[in-house]
Amino acid sequence: MSELFDAVDALLASRAALPPPAERKRLRAAHGLTIDEVAGALKVRRATVSGWESGKTEPRPPERDAYARLLDKLAELYPAAPVPAAEGGPAPDVLVPATFTGTVPAPTRPTGPTETRPLSTGPATEAAGMTAPENTQTPAPAPIPAAASRPSPATRSTPTSRRPGARKAAAAGTPAGGTDPRFENGPLAVVDVEDGKVLAYGVGGLVLDVPAKSLPSLVEWTLAEAKLGQPKLSGPGRPADPLLVLTKAALERYGLPVTLTAQERDAGRIPEDHKVIKQLTRADWKLTKRGFGPWARIYRPAKGSERQCVQLCIPSWNALDPRFWGDAAQLPPAELARVLGTFATRVMTPRGSTAVTGLELMTALHPPTHAVRDEETGALRQADTKTPGSLGSDPVDCAPPEAPDGHPVLNALDLPRFHVRGPSEKLFEEAYDWARPMTDAECTLRFLVGLDVNMAFGAGANGLTVGLGEPTHVMNPVFDPKLPGSWLVDLSHVDLSQVKVGKEWVDLEGSLLPSPFTPKGDRPTGPAWYATPTVAYAQELGYDVRPTEAYVRYDNGRYLDGWYTRLRDAYLATMADLGVTTDLSPEDFLTAMDGYKDRDPELGIVITAIKATIKGGIGKLRERPRGEGWRPGERWRALERPTWRPDIRAAVISRTRINLHRKIVKHAAFTGQYPIAVLSDCVVYAANGPSPLDVVPYRDGKPLPGGFKLGVNPGLVKHEGTQTVLWGEEVREKFDAPDLNLARSIKDGTVSTADNGE
């Protein structure tokens, strides 16, 4: 009989009564528990508990009985509050979630790892060779919201007024936009249609009911009632415009195509005679010159300091490039809101592609103009002069050697037709793409180990002095390592077989090292144009430099410091949420990095987007013509931006390449090991073992000063991949290329000629 009773008990437990999903979340939050703590107690994955709280999945035995027991105990401590009785009527029996206000205090607990984790800034990078400056202008990124999901209609609270306002799912948390009441609902929302109702999903589980029947009314509602946007990132700046992400269902609801035709994709917009654009025009809304494309901006001319502008992001029109946003475009609305909201909160509200956003972040941190008080009227107005430390509002022409081919500044040089400029006429500051054959001794080793520099180009930007204004042409200048510019100088006399490392001369196998002065690693053969960091490194190695010509910028500053700090903080905070922190030992770091993106794929997307924002933002400083009927010698659209600055791009790339070469030289002097290949920020060594610890030297737990160090901070290195020496030799033999760059394929062994961006 006892067996029958046990079976009955098990049957009852399999159907243990559970409260609604939103109430489950409220009870957990009321007791100060994190999703990870609950998951750990029940021995399930974090995503499993998140699914139970969102209603996407239901627990099964044996976890269901334990979960029900937990919720029952919490419900005793934090009972739901009854709905207030309507005036003149009886109190209803329905209970709604409420914060407990009784006599049992919630216990004090440490903050959870993914809900209210404080920002990890970490130490300054060794690559930059200095302490990161304190950033007093940039607000710290907000804690990442827990994984959100679509709440069931039953969990949405009933409005208390006739105005459709911010209707939060139960226990959605504090307002995502911080203390500014204008943006209390966060920086953005994903607009979707469910069961015939238009809903806007925000960060932290926020859901807004959208009453708009047309796109013009959606824009009006966003500006008047949605309370979306983001506070300004610097004192003289301006708040970010609200961003609406339209799903396919929302596109259909508002009369827009779900996908673009081939012709529309090429044009980057829908036709100007589209019915929705006509609706906007009739309602006095305007579009920017980019038209109605994947990142459309809809606005009315500003009146005073009040802006009226809403940006749209349309994933199905390829707004979220999968190279930089992974599968974000395929995520459900709540999950997409979490990804974009986390990025917006920690970096900035996306303004277009990751490259565009990287450039816009520079401007947001250093606005070109600022408001001043009119002495007569007392009113604020925008100043005519540029903000100190900014690039100003007017574009600046580059120097001739800094100009890419086809730039109009070259017209004055009267170059022969089809002339190809060489190093003595053109600045070639690019990332490394160098490789060499393996020596006989290296062929006896078993493995090839790839090391990758974290946020290499961001670290290269940190503390870098760049020009802010126009270049000044100087003949026979005395080189000044603190003066940004482009210098014509002969560095062919620098011999890597004997260089200074610190204050001591050391002898090296120079033929096994790439030259620090050329992207291909070849030794210069005569005068060439270089950015300041490259020439300064020649001096550091112990050699005299005597430029014959230069374009220098006396108006200069550390323009990119705040930009780097903002992106570094976003990167480190997100990596910490993925379990990779700045305080790990080398062994623990390698373990934590193993499959780190799989722990939370949505945060993995955010990491990829942050890194793409860094690389893309630097690349965008020298944007080339994009069709538009351009012909060589004519101006193109990007030249009208103050942020079109190829000299700044060259300086960052120069410093990044030099930072890596400095580590390579110190490593060679200390260990006798030389790189097999270098590609951008990845370097490959032959080693006896497959681990980076078989390459990176540690003595008494301490790395070589100034050399490679394992860690998550920008400028430190992580494991890029390991292959066998036999694999490397077979690949080179197969392609009959003894100098094939194995760094390009070290990650997964797949031979490709394309840079994977890592």
Secondary structure elements and their pairing?
Layout: H1 2-14, H2 21-30, H3 35-42, H4 46-54, H5 63-77, E1 81-82, E2 95-96, E3 166-168, E4 188-194, E5 197-201, E6 206-209, H6 215-224, E7 243-246, H7 248-253, H8 262-267, H9 275-282, E8 286-287, E9 297-303, E10 306-313, H10 322-325, H11 333-346, H12 354-365, E11 371-373, E12 380-382, E13 433-435, H13 440-443, E14 447-453, H14 456-461, E15 466-467, E16 472-475, E17 485-490, E18 498-501, E19 504-507, E20 527-531, H15 532-540, E21 549-552, E22 556-557, H16 561-577, H17 586-593, H18 601-620, H19 646-671, E23 677-679, E24 682-687, E25 698-699, E26 702-703, E27 717-724, H20 725-734
Parallel strand pairs: 4-7, 7-10
Antiparallel strand pairs: 1-2, 3-6, 4-5, 5-6, 8-9, 9-10, 11-12, 13-23, 14-24, 14-27, 15-22, 16-21, 17-20, 17-21, 18-19, 23-24, 25-26
Keywords: DNA-binding, Transcription, Transcription regulation
Protein name: Transcriptional regulator
Domain HTH cro/C1-type: 25-77
What would your notes on this structure say?
- The protein contains 20 helices and 27 strands.
- It is globular, with a radius of gyration of 29 Å.
- 44% of the residues are buried.
- It is an alpha+beta fold and 758 residues long.
- The strands form eight sheets. It has an eight-stranded mixed β-sheet with strand order 3-6-5-4-7-10-9-8, sandwiched between helices. A five-stranded antiparallel β-sheet has the order 13-23-24-14-27. A four-stranded antiparallel β-sheet has the order 16-21-17-20.
